[in-house]
Amino acid sequence: MGHDLPFTWRKREDDMSHVAHRFTGSTVIVTGAGSGIGRATAERLLTEGARVVAVDLVSDRLSRLVEEVEGEVISVPLDITEPTAAAHIVDVAGARIDGLANVAGIMDGFEPTAEVSDATWERVMAVNVTAMMRLTRAVLPHMLEREHGSIVNVGSEAGQRGSAAGTPYTTSKHAVNGFTRSTAVFYTPKGVRCNAVAPGPVATGIEAPFHSEWAQQRLGPLFQTNIPAVARPEELAAAITWLLSEDASNVSGAVLSVDGGWAAI
Ligand SMILES: NC(=O)c1ccc[n+]([C@@H]2O[C@H](COP(=O)([O-])OP(=O)(O)OC[C@H]3O[C@@H](n4cnc5c(N)ncnc54)[C@H](O)[C@@H]3O)[C@@H](O)[C@H]2O)c1
Question: Which of 18, 15, 24 is nearest to 46 (CA)?
Fold first, then answer.
C-alpha cells in the first residue's frame, strides 16, 4: 500500500510445499494479474496446474509474470473499462472457462462526498464495478453451457464499513458485495458459484493517497486503532483460489473477510 498508515507488517512465508493441484486442466481468467493480489492469485493458480488468462492494464507487468512464473499464461494487456475488453478476454480464453477472478481495482484519494470529483467517481466505479459486471456477464454463458464455474470478486474492508476509504471506493466495494450476492442467487442453481473476498490492508502496489484534509482528520484516528497487521498478497490468493476451487463447492454468495479479524471488531 502506498500510504503511511501505522500498520505492522507480517513475516513473509514462501514455503509452497503444501499446495495441492486443484486446477489441472482448468482455465481461469485473472484481472489485475500484473501486481499484488492478482499476481499472487495467478501464481498460485499456475502452481496448481491452471491455464491462466492474465489481464492487466500494464503490459510490462504481464511480461514479468510470463518470464518469472512457470506454466501456461496467456497475457492480455488491456484496460478492462474499454467497451470491447470483455469480449476480447473471453475470445482469448476459449470456450472452456472454469474460473474468473475479478481482482483489478483502484483506490480513490480518501475523498469525502463533498470533495468527490466526477472524474474520480467515474473512474473508480468504471474499474471496480462496471468492468467487473461486463466481464462476468461475458463469461457466464460459457460457464452456464457447461453448468460449471466459479467467480470470485475482490471487495474490501471498505465494503464492510464506512471508514476504510473515501466515498467513491467505499461505494464501489459495497456494490461489489451486492453484485456478488445477486449473481450467486441467479446462477448457483445452474452450477455457477459467485463469492467475494474482503481484504483488510495488503502489501501491494495499490496507491492510496490522502487527498483530503477532512478525511485525514476524521479517518486518521480511526486507523490508529483496530486495524490488523498488513497481509501478504499470497494470503489473499489462498482464499481466492479456495473459493475458485471445488473445495468450496457449497459456498456461494459469501463475502469472506480476509482481514486478520478487522471486520469482527
Ligand atoms: N492492497 C490493499 O490493501 C487492498 C485492500 C482491500 C482491497 N483491495 C483490492 O484488491 C484488488 C487488487 O488490488 P492490489 O492491492 O493488488 O493492487 P495493485 O495496484 O497492486 O494491483 C492491481 C492491478 O490491477 C491493474 N489494473 C488497474 N486498473 C486496471 C484496468 N482498468 N484494467 C486492467 N487492469 C487494471 C493494475 O495495473 C495493477 O497491476 C483491488 O480490487 C483492490 O481494491 C486491496
Answer: 24
Place of cell 477472478: 101
Active site residue 173: yes
- Specify the number of domains making up the chain: 1
* Residue nearest atom 30 of ligand 1, based on CA coordinates: 79
Between CA 206 and CA 186 the distance in angstroms is 32
In a domain, 146, yes or no: yes
In ligand 1, the atom with minimum distance to the C-alpha of 80 is 32
pLDDT average, residue stretch 173-195: 98
In a domain, 43, yes or no: yes
Q: What is the mean pLDDT of residues 55-73?
A: 97
If you take atom 21 of ligand 1, which residue's CA is the nearest one? 35
Query: Are residues 31 and 103 in contact, defined by beta-carbon separation less than 8 angstroms?
Result: yes
Q: Does residue 13 fall inside a structural domain? A: no
Which range of residues forms the domain containing residue 87? 27-264
- What distances in angstroms separate CA 247 from CA 239, 242, 251, one per listed residue? 11, 6, 9
**Mutate which of 1, 170, 204 for ligand 1 pocket (most atoms within 8 A of beta carbon):** 204
What separation in Å is there between the alpha carbon of 145 and the centre of ligand 1?
30
| CATH number for the domain that contains residue 97 | 3.40.50.720
- The model's pLDDT over 206-235, given as tens digits with 9 standing for 90+, comes to 998 999 999 999 999 988 887 888 999 999
Q: Give mean pLDDT, residues 115-139.
A: 98
Q: Which residues contact 250 (CB under 8 A, 6 or more apart)?
A: none
169 catalytic? Reply is: yes
pLDDT number for residue 2: 47
* 9 domain-assigned: no
DSSP 3-state percent helix, strand, coil across the chain (nearest 5): 45, 15, 40
